Amino acid sequence: MVPVLIPFKQVGVFVLGTEIVQYLEKFEFEVDDMSEYMVAPTINYRLSNPEITLFVSDNLIDFIGCYEELLYKGTNLIGLHIDQFSVLVDEDYGEEDELYTDEGDEPHYVYEYKNVGLQVWAKGRLGIISSIMVNGVDHYVD
Question: Taxonomically, which superkingdom (predicted)?
Fold first, then answer.
């Protein structure tokens, strides 16, 4: 499966808002039930090649996490510098949050790109992109 991004809609064959059941026989997922920590029944379905997580609530794909590869306009967005990414998507980031993870002392920064429905995680301020969360239009409704 090639993880090509269609903003607000899908990554490769995985379409936001669709039922997970249609993918269960086609792919081998690692499953992590997070329901006890969430308000709605929430289960994460992970693929290892490429490394992608489908975040599923009430049996529908809510958002998609990409950690290795996400293609847009022929370019892999994972591994780009934030400035390169901003030029490619023709948008400056909106909000910026600083978070510390268990991956060491260097903080991760999270940037929202609302015009393409992406939450971008980078190592260090304005650093290299390590992961991207793909959201649907309804994620940004105020």
Answer: Bacteria
